[in-house]
Amino acid sequence: MRGRSFTPAYVQDQQPLMSLNMTPLIDVLLVLIVMMILAVPIMTHKVPIDLPQARPAASDPRIVHRIDLAADGHLAWDGVAIADAALPGKLAAMQRDPNYELHVAADAAARYERFDQTLATIKLAGVTRLGFMGNERFARFDAR
Predict the structure, then answer these.
(1) pLDDT, tens digit, 9 for 90 and up, residues 9-66
(2) Which DSSP state fits 104?
(3) 90 burial class (0-12, 13-18, 19+ CB within 10 angstroms)?
(4) What angle is formed at CA 23 by the lines to CA 30 and CA 10, rounded to 5 degrees?
(5) 101 assigned to some structural domain
(6) 120: CATH
(7) What does the pLDDT look like over 89-123, one tens digit per residue?
(8) What is the DSSP string of 45-91?
């Protein structure tokens, strides 16, 4: 007994595992399938937008009107101050001409609620040719 060392029984009986535990692999596979099922509809979702078509340079000249929204909430039609009640009438008169365009420019300090009210009035009037002016300042919004 002097030359023999003591080794516990659990160390002597250990054999290399010949099978692989498949449960973690199946769990990972199921998680990947669920992530793919959730991600594919998001990647293929499209929002239909009617983009303007390029017009020839020799087309009819457009009659452009402009609405300016000041920081204090007052409106101006082609540079002349107007009341809120007069805006629907101006929009209706503008639409009688088939070559109209409406440009909206809002001061950066104008309240969004006021801008939203103005856009709602424009939409209710049925204006389809609308452009936003002054958005150049947001072109590089991330660069500070």
Answers:
(1) 565 566 666 777 888 899 999 999 999 888 887 767 665 666 667 666 556 667 889 9
(2) E
(3) middle
(4) 160
(5) yes
(6) 3.30.420.270
(7) 999 988 888 888 899 998 888 888 898 899 989 98
(8) ------PPPP--TTSPPPEEEEEEE-TTS-EEETTEEE-GGGHHHHH
Cα end-to-end span (Å), the chain: 81
Count Cβ atoms below 10 Å from residue 63 Cβ, excluding itself.
12
Q: How many domains does the chain have?
A: 2
pLDDT(4) > 80: no
**Which pLDDT value is given to residue 45?**
64
108 lies in which domain range?
Answer: 63-138
CA distances 28 to 18, 24, 31, 40, 68, Å, are: 22, 6, 5, 18, 57
Query: 108 and 71 share a domain?
Result: yes
Indicate whether 40 and 92 sit together in one domain: no
